[in-house]
From TrEMBL:
Keyword Acetylation found: no
Sorted UniProt keywords: Cytoplasm, Disulfide bond, Electron transport, Redox-active center, Transport
Source species of the chain: Parachitinimonas caeni
Protein's recorded name: Glutaredoxin
Classification via SUPFAM superfamilies: Thioredoxin-like
Pfam family, any one: Glutaredoxin
Function: Has a glutathione-disulfide oxidoreductase activity in the presence of NADPH and glutathione reductase. Reduces low molecular weight disulfides and proteins.
Family statement: Belongs to the glutaredoxin family.
Domain Glutaredoxin: 4-63
Length: 84
């Protein structure tokens, strides 16, 4: 199973929803809190090209934010990616 990394903040409701969706699939994401370490915000923006949280990576694949993760799940693409 690939590593799941999620860039988050403490106050973000979409981060919580993304975490809950992943947990419902039996996956615990490694969270990187960009508030706790401002250098990680720069890392997130460089990796994703985006400024908003969450930013979710499954292995080397950039999924995007919660809406992207939920859409991938609805289309049946999340589990195959998690099981790769």
């Amino acid at each position: 199973m690939p590593t799941v990394i999620m860039y988050t903040t403490n106050w973000c409701p979409y981060c919580q929803r993304a975490k809950q969706l992943l947990q419902s699939k039996g996956v615990t994401a490694t969270e990187i809190n960009i508030e706790a370490d401002p250098a990680k915000r720069d890392e997130m923006m460089q990796r994703s090209g985006r400024r908003t949280v969450p930013q979710i990576f499954i292995g080397d694949h950039h999924v995007g934010g919660f809406d992207d993760l939920a859409a991938l799940d609805r289309q049946g693409g999340l589990m195959p990616l998690l099981q790769a």
